[in-house]
Amino acid sequence: MKIRPATEADCPAIAAIWNPTIRDTLITFTDVEQTPAHLAAMLVAKKAAGVPFLVAEDADGAILGFATYGAFRKGPGYAATMEHSIMLAPAAQGRGTGRALMQTLEQAAQAAGVHSLIAGISGVNTGAIAFHRALGFAMVGHLPEVGFKAGQWLDLVLMQKIL
Asked: What is the Cα–Cα distance from 40 to 125, expressed in whole angstroms?
């Protein structure tokens, strides 16, 4: 497995990982699917801002997952706190892919002067909560019924890691 910066050529594979999660689960609160064109624009914007967007690929070049971060909140006082996103293809889960992506993302964040990473996790996503806990994230907040999707109110769990 190799961790590397995402390219425009990866955008269809990233969408193929992201969209079933958007469409078929309560893991993310959005219902707006990603298009390769939107993802390509996101990559350009992140690169211009010096923000990593990483992919994990297997020996055959198949994309196994991705990780990135962005501003947690607006304003200069929050400039060193970022909220990250990580998503894996189902076949990549439980194989160390997520850990490798997060370790690489954390190293890049530290090098960029990021002090704190935040994970905003759907309360139904107990696997992601356990994953983040295993990586040293601490639960710092639980916001009941702040998300709504598929006719259900959903909790948001906030986890944080000081880098």
From this structure: 27
159 neighbors 121 (Cβ within 8 angstroms)? yes
Separation between Cα atoms, residue 144 and residue 115, nearest integer Å: 27
Q: Which helix (H) or strand (E) holds 13?
A: helix 11-24
Residue-level pLDDT at 55: 98
Burial group, residue 80, by CB count within 10 angstroms (0-12, 13-18, 19+): middle
Which residue is associated with the tokens 């894996």?
88
Q: What is the pLDDT of residues 13-64, one digit of tens each?
A: 999 999 999 999 999 999 999 999 999 999 999 999 999 999 999 999 999 9
Give me the residue label for tokens 């390769």: 36
CA 67, distance to chain mean position in Å, is 5
Spatial distance between the Cα atoms of 134 and 151, rounded to a whole number of angstroms: 31
In terms of residues, how long is the chain?
Answer: 163
Please count the CA atoms within 13 angstroms of the CA of 70 that sit on its side-chain side: 11
